[in-house]
Amino acid sequence: MNKSNLKSVISDRPLFYHHMEWILMHPRFGFMMMGLIALSFTHNQILAAVLFAFFIAELSMRIAIILNKRRTNPYRSSMNQKIDVL
Question: At what angle do helices 13-25 and 27-40 cross, to 10 degrees?
């Protein structure tokens, strides 16, 4: 992805949220997070800081995605909203 494509993705909010949701739901992201959790059992302070930063970034992005979905489609069923939160 070249620089102009990256700028267009970031400036286009729906496209940005779509890409971020795809990344967060991808199995490789889950495996990466599980790997960081496994490495955190080594009691290494740097790994714990990296894991904390990843979790904060992930949680804030998931909250932003949920708020965006509620704002763009307020008539979603409550079951879909509960699935998004899980």
Answer: 60
Under a CB-based contact definition with an 8 Å cutoff, are residues 47 and 39 in contact? yes
Closest CA to 61 of 30, 27, 19, 33: 19
Residues of the chain with pLDDT under 50: none
Q: Are 72 and 14 in contact (CB under 8 A)?
A: yes
The Cα-based distances of 15 to 3, 71, 83, 85 in angstroms read: 16, 15, 21, 20
- Name the token pair of 13: 């909010």
**47 and 36 Cβ atoms separated by less than 8 Å:** yes
Q: Is residue 16 a contact partner of residue 9, using CB atoms and an 8 Å limit?
A: yes
- pTM beyond 0.85: the answer is no
- Altogether, the residues listed in the chain come to a count of 86
